[in-house]
Structure formats: structure tokens, C-alpha cells
Amino acid sequence: MQLSKFSDYSFRALIYLAHHSDELCTVDELAKALNTSEHHMKKVIHHLGKTDYIISIKGRAGGLKLGLKPSEINLGDLLKVTEDNMNIVECFSKPESCPLMSSGCKLKHISSQALNQFIKEFSKYTLADLL
């Protein structure tokens, strides 16, 4: 499985904010530091700003900071928030797309188990473990 760029940027943004917890950061600063476009970073920050992960302070002296302690940010939970599509096989979302579904195909079950283990492995760690 490959993480989306959105998840990748989300993880990196939170790591950056954790490393700079003594200051407010800007989207522009994050984009430059993480070598991505400001447009992509705005989408990431907007999404994370709707959660407890990031606090966005508006105004001239505003900026971004972590909303939780790094030890409180579970990577599995973050992954579930940032991954738009975790269907590693098409039949997860479109069972009608596979003619084998009606004949008891076991691929979906195995794929589902693998996905659960992937998330479970991420869930063993927090942002603090990445710092």
C-alpha cells in the first residue's frame, strides 16, 4: 500500500510543527520547508484544522501550531483521517466490479486483513515516536 501525498504531507506538517512548537508557523513556511506547493499545503492544513491536530490562529500575528501533544497524536488515527481511499482492491467499494465476488472469492478477506494490520501497525506509534 502506498500512502497518498495528502497523508504524507499531513505527517510531515505535524512533524515540522512539533519540531517548531515554540513558535507559530505559516502555511508558506511549511510548504517551503517540506518542498511542496503552498496550494497543496493549504488543503492539508485546512483539513487538519478541522480536527484537534492543528490550531490555526487567525490575524496578522497568527499562525499554526499543534493542537495536541505529540504523544497524543496516534499515527493510525491520523492515517484514518487523512487517507481518502483505503480500498486496496476495487471490490472494497464496488463489489459489482468483480465477477468472482459471487463465487466466494477470498481475496477481499485477505486484503481486508492486510489493511487492518497496516493500520494496526501505524496505531502502535504516536507523533512523539517520530521526533
UniProtKB/TrEMBL annotation:
Where does the record place a coiled coil? none
Tell me if DNA-binding is a UniProt keyword of this record. Answer: yes
Organism domain of life: Bacteria
What cofactor does this protein call for? Answer: [2Fe-2S] cluster
Answer whether the UniProt record assigns the keyword Glycosyltransferase to this protein: no
GO MF, any single term:
DNA-binding transcription factor activity
* Keywords tagged on the record: DNA-binding
Name the record gives this protein: HTH-type transcriptional regulator NsrR
What species does this protein belong to? Turicibacter bilis
